[in-house]
Amino acid sequence: MSLLPTRHQRHSIVPDVTDLFDSVPSLAWMRPILDSRLIRVEDELAEGSYVIRAELPGLDPDKDIEITVHDGRLTIKAQREERSQGKARSEFSYGSFVRTVDLPQGAREDDVEAHYDKGILTVSLSVGEPESPVHRIPVTNGS
């Protein structure tokens, strides 16, 4: 019996660009370059709700995280800044991260909630029937 926790990996309905590197070995050298500026997310579409989770440890959600929704797209932006000062030197590092995902049809952009707990950002919104029904367009015969 293993004492290690079991980790469940869900397949996202929104493809992750960094997953491309796993499927194309000749591009593997590019992963560290691009992966350092992307926010990896896990999303789940269940009855009536769409939930996105992002690992963003060590951030202050009031100052460092911005979430926007516009035209069927949700964008998460995060800014990280670290400073340390010793007797003979000081160091600082910073970086900005961004991730935009397309929302599923019927997502209610006015019903979005976001929570940050222990380094995990969870964004959820309700999903209903699409507002505009599908319209069938008749095709006329050219003869």
From TrEMBL:
Q: Which PROSITE patterns match?
A: SHSP
The record lists the membrane-crossing segments as none
Q: Which residues form the SHSP domain?
A: 32-142
Family per UniProt?
A: Belongs to the small heat shock protein (HSP20) family.
Q: What is this protein called?
A: Hsp20/alpha crystallin family protein
Q: Which organism is it from?
A: Haloechinothrix aidingensis
